[in-house]
Amino acid sequence: MSVFTTRLAAVLIPVAALGITSCSGPATSSSVRADFYWSAARETYALGDYTKTADHLEQLIGDDNPYTARAIPWYLAVTGGMANGYRELADQYAAGARRNKSETAAFRAKAAAYRTMANQWAMRLAQNADKLKDIPLGPLPLDFALPKGSAGEPELLSPIANGRELDAADAETAEVVTLQHAVLMAVCAAAGAPQDVAKAEEVLGRVPTEVTRATFGKALAGMLEDASRLYGRNQLDEPQKLAALRERADLVRKEAARVGSARVIEAARAARPNP
Fold first, then answer.
1. Which residues make Cβ contacts (< 8 Å) with residue 205, sequence separation at least 6?
2. What are 5-17's pLDDT values in tens digits?
3. Does a structural domain hold residue 13?
4. pTM (two decimals)
5. What are phi and psi of 21, to 5 degrees?
6. In this structure, what are the phi and psi dihedrals at residue 211, rounded to the nearest 5 degrees?
7. What Rg do the C-alpha atoms of the chain give, in angstroms?
8. Exposed e or buried b for every residue in 194-205, given b needs 16+ CB within 10 A?
9. What gap in Å lies between CA 217 and CA 22, rounded to an integer?
């Protein structure tokens, strides 16, 4: 079985919620459905609910609709960030298990739970990374704002890594801020501003905007490689998945360079006749 056959089931919202009546024609129903999911993704993204954001966007990336080309980069940035955020949480709890011998079992249990979540998000990312080719040639549209989150590393990760057991409220806060930070970093990379929140804010402050396919492809390949670390010997120890994600990263780079590097885009623009 292919490693990309495992997939989280998208949250299905009843058709009735879309306000579609039985007398609506297929084209109208499809348009209303797409409008609904796009609007819902914007709302949940603004709230920092990236699970629901990804679920809504997943409804838009599988077929041809007015939002497909804009939904794909957004979905990949969110899923890449979530995969890396859960992997980071797992790594910190695993480190804490080595420090706190009396609570090793509890820390390992948390690490295992977060690795399970990271695996689910990594599979969503990997299964849909090839949708980059479904976006028309040329620059990629980015039609989403900078998400919530702080540019700095989450402070609560340090006590976790040092083996300090957090109370329930702080543990929940650690999860939230770590995921927010990871999605923020993924979006910065997608905007061509890795680790530079100020520059990413400038780029995304004029949404909708565009980045070159090479820029986005490099960011996406980096997300896949980061996610692949989850399958190393000291973590989930799944060499087939590790190899598969790294192979997908290489394919993404080749696809991005082949169909729309900055040089290709500039050459194409220069070749256009003057109006």
1. 145, 146
2. 333 333 323 323 3
3. no
4. 0.83
5. -95, 165
6. -130, 160
7. 20
8. bebbeebeebbe
9. 42
